[in-house]
Specification:
The strands form 5 sheets. Strands 5, 6, 7, 8 and 9 form a 5-stranded mixed sheet that branches. This protein folds into 3 domains: 260 residues, HUPs (Rossmann fold); 145 residues, Isoleucyl-tRNA Synthetase, Domain 1 (Orthogonal Bundle), CATH 1.10.730; 47 residues, no CATH class. It is 42% helix and 15% strand. With 465 residues, it is of the alpha/beta class. Bound molecules: adenosine monophosphate and zinc ion. Zinc ion binds next to α6. Adenosine monophosphate binds next to α1 and β10.
Length: 465
């Protein structure tokens, strides 16, 4: 079944296929390793993982490259604050990132290049850009001349915005400059005193590469001049991806990425989850409140990737309930056959869930179809072969979504009915907002449903009365 996916460049859903008819080449902008990745970052990485799993389920091989940004303004600043060398500091956070990826059941990319290890590649690219008249050196470093690339702005549809190409000729060397300024951007940044020991030699003096360049240099190295799909969070469309396109297209003869795939933000209370907003949750924060990585993964795919998704604790409770429902079906079906597991087959009775998933990676629609099918299938009324087909189909879908089902324990808080879980989540929110009257009413409702809620410092526990 062909997967269709919205393309940011053409604004159309397009069939995803490998250009060379063989391996699908896929580049993802990776994390900046200066602290733990938050679950907003992981929304993007989880959706990219589902994309890869869906492509591979259909028998297509992938070549997945995801970089590690281990040198930029933030990594340098925070390694100095931590009193560590840049290499030791970024190694620590890269290891933490890998541990979180494994917990979330993310397939490791086939290549995971780091920016520092590819400085010669970046220097070579700058040399080409200068030789072709697309870049110029100043005392502050080397800059890309935006006006030399008339297609600049096509991806982010700058023509639809107030910003005009050529309206600004100011140069900027910040890795995170104001999103609405259209400036010549730094390819090489001359060494500054605050960089400390973090500088490298180049034909333009000591310094370091600008952030945008690393993805152009590393995608060229590992995927070639043009490749199939390039992805990141929606905040990267402008300027990062616009700059990548400009650098890559001007340095080579390639068309660069053929399909652009962007994931909308995970939000908290209407704002983007981000380190700078201080509204982030990490996997560790959520584990401390009793939530598993599987539940977090479920929440992250519970909304369509092109729409912002609001994170709430209620959504985590709902995820727990949904995973348990699937696990209960699996358990009772396996018990009926007196077997322990069934290999994933085709989608079987979950064909509509698979079809929905292949339509612009509609994960919430797919999950909805899974439950519609589960509600219809009653193991007690199915033949043995129908049960095997259903179990195999469920495993097929779960593998495509990268979801693992929980072990079912009897009579614990994990069997809390949705209504009670919802009341408890609402009560916890009320308590956080110091709305004691509402919290009291909700406690009584929980009790009349046969449950007792006990509060800890950062979490609550539900037990049967
Ligand atoms: P960074 O480590 O900041 O370079 O970001 C790594 C990836 O996470 C990038 O693809 C970002 O676009 C993405 N990202 C950052 N914040 C969010 C968010 N709140 N929701 C979804 N993706 C995000
Ligand atoms: Zn990038």
């Amino acid at each position: 079944m062909p997967l269709t996916l919205h393309d940011t460049l053409t604004r159309e859903a397009r069939v995803v296929r490998a250009l060379d008819g063989g391996t699908l080449k896929f580049y993802c902008c990776g994390p900046t390793v200066y602290g733990p990745a938050h679950i907003g970052n992981f929304r993007t990485f989880v959706v990219q993982d589902v994309f890869r799993r869906v492509v591979e389920r259909d028998g297509t091989a992938t070549l997945h490259v995801r970089n590690i940004t281990d040198v930029d303004d933030k990594t340098i600043r925070d390694s100095q604050k931590a009193g560590l060398s840049l290499a030791d500091f970024t190694r620590h956070w890269t290891e933490k990132f890998h541990a979180d990826c494994a917990a979330l059941n993310l397939l490791p990319p086939h290549v995971e290049p780091g920016a520092v290890a590819h400085i010669p590649h970046q220097i070579r690219m700058i040399e080409k850009l200068i030789a072709k008249g697309h870049a110029y050196a100043t005392s502050g470093g080397v800059y890309f001349k935006v006006s030399s690339f008339p297609q600049y702005g096509r991806l982010s549809h700058l023509e639809d915005r107030e910003i005009k190409l050529g309206a600004s000729t100011a140069a900027t060397d910040s890795d995170e400059y104001d999103k609405d300024s259209l400036s010549d951007f730094a390819l090489w940044k001359a060494r500054k005193p605050e960089d400390g020991a973090n500088f490298w030699r180049s034909p333009w003096g000591e310094g370091r590469p600008g952030w945008h360049l690393e993805c152009s240099a590393m995608s060229l190295e590992y995927l070639g001049e043009d490749f199939d799909v390039h992805s990141g969070g929606v905040d990267l469309v402008f300027p990062h991806h616009e700059n990548e396109i400009a650098q890559s297209c001007c340095a080579t003869h390639g068309r660069f990425a053929h399909h652009w795939f962007h994931v909308a933000h995970l939000m908290v209370d209407g704002g983007k989850m981000s380190k700078s907003q201080g509204n982030l949750y990490t996997l560790e924060d959520l584990a401390n409140r009793g939530y598993t990585p599987e539940e977090v993964r479920y929440v992250l795919i519970s909304g369509h990737y092109r729409a912002p998704l609001n994170f709430t604790f209620h959504s985590l409770d709902a995820a727990r309930h949904a995973l348990q429902k699937m696990a209960r079906f699996q358990k009772s079906a396996l018990e009926r056959l007196a077997i322990h597991s069934v290999e994933p087959s085709g989608p079987g009775p979950f064909a509509s869930a698979w079809e929905t998933l292949n339509h612009d990676l509609n994960t919430p629609g797919c999950l909805g179809e899974v439950f519609t099918t589960l509600n219809r299938l009653k193991p007690a009324h199915l033949s043995d072969s129908e049960i095997v087909e259903a179990l195999g189909g469920l495993r097929f879908i779960l593998q495509a979504l990268g979801l693992k089902l929980p072990e079912l324990k009897e009579d614990t808080a994990t069997d809390v009915p949705t209504e009670v879980a919802t009341l408890a989540a609402r009560r916890w929110e009320a308590k956080k907002n110091k709305d004691w009257a509402a919290a009291d009413i909700l406690r009584k409702e929980i009790e009349s449903a046969g449950w007792i809620v006990k509060d800890g410092k950062d979490a609550y526990e539900l037990t049967r009365k």
